[in-house]
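Input (structure):
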């Protein structure tokens, strides 16, 4: 399962609505417009990435017609492709920059991996770690539709991070643990940021110095467990 945002009511519409704001998005462009209208997407380079990466390329075969709905979808193995609103909120909090080195935990479908790779550009690099090897395979298959040379996928326990590639400018997790793994704090550059769910909150942690961190919590999310 992915991360989903339950901060607004998500009543399914049974009546046809003429308003494009109410009707479910049927193109990637419409999905992006909805996220902009809802003010969850605001940063131009993040918006650009959402336009360039088609969510349809990351859902399972048969789910293409639901790809632009603002909800998580199963990708098997108990995992989901995260809800677009949640992905947008997390990226807006992380604010990845061109050239950044990012550690991602919980690759899943590879959707967030692709968005990160697009945002940080060819001089940056995404290191993404997934616990389930079949899902790493799925993400590899999905990412092949784009020609990223700046995304590397790994199978393993993301709780340990990837010490061999540290330090990172940013760390982002799609799975929720009981506490922030110490390895992430250690493997983060000073001045870097971690965006990760802890319990049912999204936590933003800034590393001010080797030992000093500033933490802000945003409650109201539903998460997949970090196992
Ligand atoms: N951003 C992904 C979300 C996938 S769901 C997407 O949108 O597709 C979260 C993922 O975290 C699942 O694939 C799950 O297998 C993975 N996960 C859970 N615990 C993990 C761990 N300890 N290490 C690495 N990945 C983990």
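Output (sequence):
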């Amino acid at each position: 399962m992915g991360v989903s945002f339950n901060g607004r009511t998500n009543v399914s519409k049974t009546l046809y609505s003429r308003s494009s704001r109410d009707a479910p998005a049927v193109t990637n462009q419409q999905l992006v417009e909805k996220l902009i209208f809802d003010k969850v997407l605001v940063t131009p380079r993040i918006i650009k990435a959402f336009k360039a990466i088609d969510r349809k390329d990351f859902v399972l075969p048969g789910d293409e017609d639901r790809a632009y709905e603002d909800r998580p979808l199963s990708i098997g193995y108990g995992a989901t492709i995260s809800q677009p609103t949640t992905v947008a909120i997390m990226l807006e909090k992380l604010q990845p920059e061109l050239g950044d080195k990012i550690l991602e935990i919980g690759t899943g479908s590879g959707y967030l991996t692709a968005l990160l790779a697009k945002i940080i550009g060819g001089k940056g690099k995404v290191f993404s770690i997934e616990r389930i090897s079949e899902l790493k395979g799925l993400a590899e298959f999905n990412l092949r539709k784009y020609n990223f040379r700046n995304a590397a996928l790994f199978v393993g326990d993301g709780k340990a991070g990837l010490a061999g590639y540290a330090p990172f400018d940013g760390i982002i997790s799609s799975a929720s643990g009981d506490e922030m793994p110490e390895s992430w704090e250690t493997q983060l550059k000073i001045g870097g940021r971690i965006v990760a769910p802890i319990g049912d909150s999204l936590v933003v942690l800034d590393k001010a110095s080797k030992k000093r961190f500033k933490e802000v919590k945003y409650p109201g999310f539903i998460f997949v467990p970090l196992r």
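Notes: The CA atoms of residues 70 and 84 lie 6 Å apart. Residues 84-94 form the longest helix (11 residues).
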